[in-house]
């Protein structure tokens, strides 16, 4: 019975893939250079994951054939596929889609959170003083090359 369910799911995925291809791949959807770059980044993400093509495709909710089409730039993935990559495989979509890590990707630490909470708790006049002190410290630090870290 389990085998029948797997075969049925595979057939449904193939049918859904066909519908998505017709709906989501109109001519001129994306320029060839971007599509090629995206395809390379998708393939690199799969290889980095250590998963087989079949397993990666399953976690992404597509067939092996569709996964291959994404990796060869024959098709552009839809938002549902990208969402599954992000959710199931923890793939950074900013990097996947653009090839660049955003400048603000740095995570806020517990220490950062504590400073923000303390700053927010201050009255407006004291927050202005803190901003001026930080500005002055930043200017002094950037002006002196030998300033110890």
Q: How much is the average pLDDT?
A: 79
Rounded to an integer in angstroms, the radius of gyration calculated over CA atoms is 24 Å
> What distance lies between the first and last C-alpha atoms, to the nearest angstrom?
66 Å
Number of helices: 8
Q: Name the poorly predicted regions.
A: 1-8, 18-22
What's the shape?
A: elongated
| Structural class estimated from helices and strands | mainly alpha
β content, as a range?
Answer: under 5%
Largest sheet: none
What sequence of helices (H) and strands (E) makes up the elements?
A: HHHHHHHH
Q: Find the count of extended strands (DSSP E, 2+ residues).
A: 0
Helix amount: over 70%
Protein model, in words:
The protein has 149 residues and is an all-alpha fold. It contains eight helices and no strands. It has helices at 2-24, 32-49, 53-60, 64-71, 79-89, 93-98, 110-121, 124-143. Helix 3 (53-60) crosses helix 4. The longest helix has 23 residues, at 2-24. The termini are far apart. The model is unreliable at 1-8 and 18-22 (pLDDT under 50).
